[in-house]
Amino acid sequence: MDDLIPIFVVGMLFIGLPWLIFHYITKWKQAATLTGEDERLLDELHYTARRLEDRLMTIERIIAADNPDFRPTMSSSEDVEHDYSRRN
């Protein structure tokens, strides 16, 4: 029985511990990447955001045609340019 303890300890150190470390490294790397489902969801969200932006611009054009005092909001690309010009 006393002869088996060092064999178990050596086995755990050189086989079990590296296996455990590499197992969790692999799980960590898999969790850090986007899955196909994640990419599809992002594409769908991007498409929905574009449609909503188009709808908002259409509504703003209709309101601007009816009310000359209406000042439409800036689109996201104009916001970025506006913020950049303020900083410089």
Automatic annotation (TrEMBL):
Keyword Transcription among record annotations: no
Pfam assignment, any one: PspB
Q: Where are the transmembrane segments?
A: 6-25
**Which residue ranges are recorded for the region named Disordered?**
68-88
Reply yes or no: does the keyword Transmembrane helix apply: yes
Keywords from UniProt, A to Z, are: Membrane, Transmembrane, Transmembrane helix
Q: Name one GO biological process term.
A: phage shock
Designated name of the protein: Envelope stress response membrane protein PspB
Organism this protein belongs to: Sphingomonas gilva
